[in-house]
Design a protein that fits this description.
Length: 272
């Protein structure tokens, strides 16, 4: 109740003292998203008993859909990016006398940047849009209203499990992407170039730092939270069936924008 009152007060203040411009609409949208996120995290305090069993079941289904079923597509993309990068590095860098930079190049390109970003985009394209469409359809079929009438918190059953499942899935998928891109990419490159595997592994091991691992983990956790949170937020927005495609599109675009900005911010935070 207090949170809703504060939210209404903030929205009223913005609408009263700022003209109806894109900046006003952006501020109102940020305010609305902030209070939505607050309600989601506060709902975790109700996680007990029969709600916990339902929560775990939804989390497992979300991890299966977002994580396990994305492995074939992610494998192909990881192999193609890894093999291309490794072939070019092994072919080009020795000509410049920079053999030792092969590990640093793969660390910079795959582990730091491409792995977290490509994985987040795949999760967003596959699962983010599906989450928004699913919740929008459930809202149109009055399933959310029915849950509230039965005293069930929809944030606890419909949003929070997808948030946890998204974080778990993205973290595991990014680790999988990096391993497949580097090891699988080397195996493919071995058909075209001759480079000792022991030397390749040594370059990789010496180049990776703890900062790289922490940065990748931070990016995966942030992306795993932002994507389902944004997509579920827009999933509650449609008021008619005709608005579902509109809000699915908005969810994907806003999530993609947030992922790029946050990835860039974390890179700057960790490496500058």
């Amino acid at each position: 109740m207090i949170g809703s009152y504060v939210q209404r007060s903030v929205n009223h203040f913005v609408q009263k003292y700022f003209s109806n411009t894109w900046l006003t609409r952006a501020l109102l949208g940020v305010s609305d998203f902030f209070w939505f996120s607050q309600q989601v995290f506060r709902s975790s305090l109700q996680l007990r008993g029969k709600h916990f069993d339902t929560f775990v079941r939804v989390v497992i289904n979300q991890v299966r859909f977002t994580g396990a079923q994305a492995l074939p597509m992610l494998s192909v993309i990881a192999l193609s990016i890894g093999a291309t990068t490794i072939i070019e590095a092994i072919t080009f860098l020795p000509k410049l006398g920079q053999d030792n930079f092969i590990g640093n190049l793969l660390r910079l390109v795959i582990i730091r940047e491409i792995g977290p970003l490509i994985t987040a985009i795949i999760v967003l394209a596959r699962s983010g849009s599906a989450i928004t469409a699913e919740l929008s359809t459930q809202k149109m079929h009055r399933e959310i209203d029915a849950m509230e009438m039965m005293g069930i918190n929809p944030y606890l059953i419909m949003v929070l499990p997808r948030l946890f499942g998204g974080v778990i899935s993205v973290v595991l998928l990014i680790i999988y992407f990096d391993v497949i891109a580097i090891i699988g990419g080397y195996l493919i490159s071995s058909f075209f170039t001759a480079f000792p595997f022991s030397t390749f592994v040594d370059y990789i091991a010496r180049s990776i730092t703890m900062t790289d691992l922490v940065s990748t983990l931070a990016k995966s956790v942030v992306s795993g939270m932002v994507i389902p949170l944004t997509c579920t937020y827009f999933g509650f927005k449609p008021e008619s069936l005709f608005q579902i495609p509109i809000f699915v599109s908005r969810a994907v675009i806003r999530s993609l924008f947030a992922v790029f900005i946050l990835n860039a911010f974390l890179s700057v935070l960790f490496y500058l």
